[in-house]
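Re: that chain you flagged

S.,

Sorry for the slow reply, it's been a week of failed gels. I finally had a moment to sit down with the sequence you sent. For the record, here it is as I used it:
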Amino acid sequence: MRQSRDLAVLSKVEVVRNAGALLAAMKLREGGRIDEAQTVLAERIEASHAFNEAELRSAEVDRILGRLGRVHEELVNTAASWDAGRDLGLRASLEALGYIGE
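Prediction finished late last night. Pasting the structure tokens below so you have them in one place:
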């Protein structure tokens, strides 16, 4: 029982870490630091995926990892367009805060 509760708490912590990385990446993107934004997301995706596979096996972490992966891909695809990047940043921020969903 305790281990199950601990895993649930760790899953929530991992979701919050991932949301924080998403917001940080969008702030970097807004500041024109596109490469750094991509790196922040790529590193967080890698670390979170490894932790989830090894320890958590959480569907919620998998879900947010999918979102981070889509945002990372869009960051790569919109790196040359300021307007597209701004729109991506707004949408990603709203998703991370829970105002809009998948």
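What I noticed first: The first helix runs from residue 2 to 30.

Talk soon,
D.
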